[in-house]
Amino acid sequence: MTTRLLALEDVKQAYKPKSSTFGARRTGTVRAVDGVTLDVTAGETVGLVGESGCGKSSLAKLIVGLEQPVSGRVLWKGRDVAGMSRAEKSAFHRGVQLIFQDPFASLNPRRTIRESIAEGILTHKSLPRQRVHDRVDELMADVGLDPAHADKYPHECSGGQLQRVGIARALALGPDLLVCDEPVSALDISVRAQVLNLLNGLRQKHGLTIVFIAHDLDVVQHMSDRIVTMYLGKIVEEGPCDAVYGTSAHPYTRALLSAVPKRLPPGHRIDRVVLEGDPPSPIDPPPGCPFHTRCYTAVPDCASTVPALTEIGAGHRAACLRADDVRSSQVGLPYRAS
Ligand SMILES: Nc1ncnc2c1ncn2[C@@H]1O[C@H](COP(=O)(O)OP(=O)(O)OP(=O)(O)O)[C@@H](O)[C@H]1O
Question: Taking the complete model, does pTM exceed 0.90, yes or no?
């Protein structure tokens, strides 16, 4: 039986625009998350992808309860987070943990690694000193950190070691769900795979559910059961990993796929899509399909019709008027050249 751990129902988040480079006040509202509906089932890993500014981190903050949505509901184990009692909220905050992109910025520079990991435990539990000490040792072993690092300060550790500390802190309270917000994008290429393997191993060992955020499809491919593509605050495609990588039906996902460097088998080629320019401003999104201004396959209707996220296969949905054509095309996917 599958258990729905987390559900987002038509969730929206809006911000006042930050002032421009020259300090001028901007008007309007930034629609960072614009009507997202998403279920996360216990034990699965959901890869959430999209370019910078599409709303991934805003969604992460809503999921972990760091921010409240302006409308819509966040449900944790079937309960609306907004209506939870104090005790329920405390259990929710223990059950959902965030792993940040920049581990250095998320740690107190004046605390040793041991103190930083212990802080995560002591925030929610009061335990005898020896128990906390033992639990920190256990967590350090779990994330493959040498005990010799326990008395070091963050500036004495490498990026990869600090991200392991961030993961240990997140695991300290035995969470059900880890939200990993670009956990390897600030790391050297050489240590990325180690951290991804670690997360994969921990997921199996502890039966974790993971929402894994990345700006490209390369990083999430080997981690995820399901892929969700976001554009301008909206989900434009979601589906099982194989369906999205093999027969994606949204031109934006095709563009992201074609940007993934691949070693092609002999005789194969890819018709790549190059995304021109930046996404439009979320203060003033275009009418119709949000992607039509950059789409390689848009038709006139796309400028006026907002495409609904529509089921096109088992668990596979896409918000595109041309989903069937995109799905049956080869754009962005390797194929044997004739
Ligand atoms: N606190 C805030 N105040 C004003 N605007 C914000 C705030 N947080 C995010 N935004 C804006 O909301 C939009 C979505 O930002 P968000 O950080 O969620 O995107 P993202 O996909 O995570 O991007 P990145 O990968 O660069 O972090 C962007 O236009 C961003 O500038």
Answer: yes
* Model ipTM value: 0.97
Give the residue whose CA is nearest to atom 1 of ligand 1: 15
Name which of 124, 208, 177 is nearest 8 in CA terms.
177
For ligand 1, atom 2, name the residue with the nearest CA.
15
> What contacts 319, CB < 8 A, 6 or more positions away?
234, 235, 236, 237, 250, 289, 307, 308, 309, 310
DSSP, collapsed to helix, strand or coil, labels residue 145 as coil
Residues 170-196: tens digit of each pLDDT = 999 899 999 999 999 888 888 999 999
Among candidates 252, 253, 233, which has minimal Cα distance to 243? 253
Ligand 1 atom at shortest distance from the alpha carbon of 59: 18
Which domains can be identified in the chain, with CATH numbers? 1-14+30-111+158-224 (3.40.50.300), 248-338 (no CATH)
Q: How far is the CA of 212 from the centre of ligand 1 (A)?
A: 17
Residue whose CA lies nearest to ligand 1 atom number 26: 52
Q: What is the pLDDT of residues 70-115, one digit of tens each?
A: 999 999 999 999 999 999 999 999 999 999 888 888 889 999 999 9
Identify any residues that bridge with 61 across adjacent strands, giving them in sequence order.
Answer: none
Bridge pairing between strands 45-49 and 209-214: parallel
